[in-house]
Structures are given as C-alpha cells and as structure tokens.
Design brief:
Elements (H helix, E strand, L loop, with lengths): L1 H16 L9 H7 L4 H4 L2 H12 L2 H6 L2 E4 L10 E6 L4 E5 L13 H4 L5 H8 L19 H5 L11 H20 L9 H15 L1 H17 L6 H20 L6 H24 L1 H27 L4 H4 L5 H6 L8 H23 L14
Antiparallel strand pairs: 1-2, 2-3
C-alpha cells in the first residue's frame, strides 16, 4: 500500500509539471528532448536569428524581434538579407555564409539582367544607336572604283541543263515585266520600288534553301560540306538587306503582300525540289537570274542619269544603307543602287562558279569574298 501510494504521488507530480498553467514552450527544452532532430526542426528564421546572435551582442539580439523575412528584387550586399521587425522596419541580418569564400558559387550573372526594372524599359524602347545593320555575316564592301566597273556580262549556256536554266529565267523575266507594267508606261520611283521589293523577296530564297539543304545533307550523311554553306547564307542575307533598304522608302499594300506570299510559297517549293534533284541546275539558274538583276539595276542607273527619277536624284541614302555598305555620310540614293548592282554582279560570279563544280568540291570563296 505504501509503495502504491508513493507511485500515485510521483505521477501527480509529473502531471503537474506538464499542466497547461506551468508549461512554457522554449527552444531549449524542445531540442533537449529530441537532440538528433535539432537542425531539422529549426525554421529558416530561427537559423538566421541564431546566426546573427553569434555575431552581435546578446543585448542587441533580445531587443529585435524578427517576424518575417522578405526577399528583395534588387541585389543585396554580399551576405546580407533584408528582414522586418514587428513594426515593419527593415533591418539587415548578417547571415553566416553557407560556403567558404573559395567554394562560394558565382551567382553574379543571375543578379544582373532582366531582374532590374531599368533593363526592361531599355529593351522595350530600342533606339537606333548606329549599330543596327552591322551584322555578323561578312559581305563585300565595295570601293567607288569597283561599283563603277560593273558591266553586263553573259555566260553562254553549254550543256542541256544550262539551256533549260537560261530558258526558265527568260520566261520568268518576260512574264514579270508584262504583269508588273515594266514594259510599258513611264518608269517612276514608285514603279521602281515595287519592282525592287518584289524581286528581292524572291532573290533571297535560293541562298537560304541551298544552305539549308546542304546543311541537312551534311547532318544526315555524316559528311562535311566543304565550305559551301557560309557563302550561300551570306548571299541570302545580302539579298534580304536589299529588301530592308527598299522598305525604308515604301511600305507595300495588303494586295502586294498577298502577292509576295503566293510567289514565295510557289518559288520555295519548286526551288527546293529542284535543288534536291540537281544542284548544278539551280546554281546556273541563279547565275542567269543575277545576270538579269545586273541589267535591271543598270537600267535604273540610266534613268538616274537621264533625269527620269527626280525624287531619287536629290534623296540622301537611308541610314541603314550607309551602315551596311559603309557608305560616306553624304551618300545619295544613286550610291545605294550602285552598291546593290555590285552585290548582284558578285552573286552572278559566285553562282556560275558553283554551277561548274561538283557538289563535293571545296568552295573557292572565302567568307565575305
């Protein structure tokens, strides 16, 4: 009986110790009951609070009550986190680094960039600072002597493939001149712009299609390309820059854009199929097409000199053209036509040379040459 009474008194003492009135939660007794779970049960705020306590005086720690940690969008100082006390006042917490200095991960490229509002505003409003038009793909920069030495030439067709290619170009030229009204009436600046814009939307197709086809062949056959791709891509971009220059002077109508979409879809399909069958035919075709382009721009220069284009005669070259061809600051529209004609003569030479080569022969043209 005495032993049973002693057990009852001991249980009552333990129960009183854990009663609601006498129980006070603190970090020390909880962690003392579960010593192996200390680090897992401590919250992020507790860890930062204890870390700051090791670097500051006990009096300073007891005066500040951390309730919420806020992550700011602007990059903070090294090892510094912004926190708010009970009154909402921001206070820095010098958190101990998780890694030594020589093992600290470099996160500087995350702290700079689009997380800054100023950068977003700059990207919304892109200003022409003189660098637009200076593209990575190289291209020839013509001298005044070179642009004035361009002449109309013709590579007579020798084989059956050459004759078919030349015949296709002549049929296309005759029909386009008829449908565009180029064969009759007065040739004005408006008529020239419509012709240049439409032709350049087509002229930019062969180089890209040929480069893409050779690129895929190289990947599929696990063989090298022998340096053709870069020359073809340079040609495609150069023709596109002719288009971009013309668009500085005129924005086509909806009907004109519809005709461009139809012509591009038809030409891309036919030229892609032809390049898969006979690359020499396609390069010869483009060579003859460039011959006609040289004739076209030569005729445009003749209209300049004869006074048929009074608006263009006194017009300054677009800034885009000045940057792309490195023209002088006082360059005029006639200088732009001279540069475009020199580009077309260069494409004429390149494609006739590629048409004479086998598909596995090395490309004789260096980048930008």
């Amino acid at each position: 009986m005495a032993a049973r009474g002693a057990l009852r008194l001991q249980a009552a003492a333990v129960g009183g110790a854990f009663s609601r009135r006498s129980f006070h939660l603190s970090a020390a007794p909880v962690t003392s009951f579960l010593p192996g779970q200390r680090e897992r049960q401590m919250s992020l705020v507790q860890r930062m609070y204890l870390s700051s306590a090791t670097q500051t005086s006990p009096k300073h720690v007891t005066e500040k009550k951390v309730e919420k940690v806020t992550v700011v969008s602007t990059p903070a100082e090294k090892g510094e986190v912004q926190a708010k006390d009970a009154r909402g006042t921001a206070n820095p917490l010098n958190v101990l680094p998780l890694h030594p200095d020589h093992h600290r991960p470099d996160l500087s490229h995350f702290r700079t960039g689009l997380n800054q509002p100023d950068d977003l505003e700059k990207k919304k409003h892109v200003k022409d600072d003189g660098t637009i038009g200076q593209y990575a793909l190289p291209h020839p920069i013509w001298t005044e002597e070179e642009v004035n030495k361009v002449v109309i030439t013709h590579n007579p067709p020798q084989t059956f493939t050459d004759k078919v290619a030349y015949g296709c170009v002549q049929v296309m030229r005759w029909n386009f001149d008829l449908l565009s009204g180029f064969k009759y009436g007065k040739r004005t600046e408006r008529k020239w712009l419509q012709r240049i814009i439409f032709l350049e939307t087509v002229a930019g197709v062969p180089g890209m299609v040929a480069a893409m086809t050779r690129h895929l062949h190289s990947l599929r056959r696990l063989k090298r390309d022998h340096g053709w791709i870069h020359t073809l891509l340079e040609e495609a971009e150069n023709e596109r820059m002719h288009l971009m220059t013309a668009l500085q002077l005129k924005q086509p109508s909806a009907l004109f854009r519809g005709c461009v979409i139809f012509a591009q879809g038809t030409f891309v399909t036919l030229f892609s199929a032809a390049y898969l069958i006979s690359p020499p035919f396609c390069h010869r075709f483009v060579g003859y097409l460039e011959e006609e382009a040289v004739k076209t721009y030569t005729k445009c220069l003749e209209d300049f000199d004869s006074g048929r284009l009074p608006l263009w005669s006194d017009m300054e070259a677009p800034p885009l053209a000045k940057r792309y061809w490195s023209l002088p600051h006082d360059a005029m529209m006639r200088d732009v036509i001279l540069a475009i004609r020199a580009d077309e003569a260069h494409h004429r030479l390149v494609n006739h040379a590629l048409g004479d080569l086998d598909k596995d022969d090395p490309n004789p043209f260096q980048p930008g040459k």
